[in-house]
Write a structure and sequence with these properties.
4 copies of one chain form a homotetramer. In chain A, 40% of the residues are buried. Helix content of chain A is 69%, strand content 0%. The first copy, chain A, is mainly alpha-helical. Chain A starts with 7 loop residues before the first helix and ends in an 8-residue tail after the last helix. At the A-B interface, helix 1, helix 2, helix 3, helix 4 and helix 5 of A face helix 1, helix 2, helix 3, helix 4 and helix 5 of B.
């Protein structure tokens, strides 16, 4: 089920079923899920801890390294989906609304090629 | 565009276009994106810093609080999507493969209602 | 060398020597050290991921658990000391100045028993 | 009170008094303190989010930037000290023991100038 055809609803349902099968909903408070997400984000970051930015781009050309990194990203994504389920929010709407808000906050002409606004 | 019909490909394209419009690709090394993701995860976590698990469930009944939390989740998700683009990975396949792997690692009968295996 | 008699200078010197013996200074950029610190903070947090606040207090009565937690705290502290060395800052002065600043930001009478200001 | 003469006990006492004055001990569970530490670590990291390692070294030559960074490091350190108080652990002993353990784990001759062991 590739990105081209998989909806967020399908992915949310997969993690909902996983949690329900284990009766893990009582552990899935917003506080706990946000902690778990931060832990997984740190595990992803650890892959790139001692390298330069350019080296981090090269590293992921190694298939074994990329597979390890992809797995950490999946761990993060699973927490995002669990948060979506626990909080009852529509992730797609939320993400697209945030991108629209960011487009106003970071006007393309002022931020082109820069991560701070043009003076 | 709700979760029921929005594909990962649609969301990835939205963040790809956003970055392209600002020529931000040079900043989007795996190292930087993993750091940014961890920063946003911490901002989400900060909402629930001083409360108990149960209180964190109550908090999100407040619409203004929920909106703030949802926005932080969107920030995290945007980094996940950017990582998917930069690394050229199919997020849906990766997520579903990880859920399948976790199902083997955490057999339902051993972990039902428990976050550690039954002794 | 207990807390009662050990100065920050002694601890900073111990981590400086450790890094010098391995010629690790080139890896110790502020960016990398801040990432490493965040990774260790997440490893500490992971100990308390699925428990309630009260249970986290009980857990650390177990000597083996406490030893594991203490080791993660040490990992965090080593990064703080490395940052102090790399940046050439006096940690004691910095910490005491921040406590003084916080005392103004959080007046005791307004914040007594509360993590938000009295209305 | 500079690093040359300030003991860990002095710093721990300063944060203990600060918390006692506000009756904040009930909030200072190990779980909450580990979350707060991770949040502050992320705020420190955010300073160096979009720059290369070398640029992060240059940034801190700017006194205003360095002051901002130093303040985030102090925030992290205050959480470490609070954890030391809450858990009743001797931080100096813990840190020095961890450095000794790391010296065995990372023999200088194998790790000189490398963050992975010589093949």
């Amino acid at each position: 089920m590739p990105d081209a055809t998989t909806t967020l609803a399908t992915l949310k349902e997969a993690v909902r079923q996983f949690a329900a099968d284990r009766q893990w909903e009582p552990f899935h408070s917003p506080k706990n899920l946000s902690m778990g997400l931060a832990v997984e984000a740190a595990e992803l970051m650890e892959h790139f801890l001692w390298v330069d930015n350019e080296a981090s781009r090269q590293m992921v050309h190694d298939p074994a390294e990329l597979a390890g990194v992809a797995e950490e990203i999946a761990d993060v994504a699973v927490y995002v989906l669990n948060l979506g389920n626990t909080l009852g929010i529509d992730l797609s709407e939320t993400i697209l609304a945030k991108i629209a808000k960011n487009a106003v906050k970071y006007p393309a002409e002022q931020y082109r090629g820069r991560y701070t606004a043009k003076p």
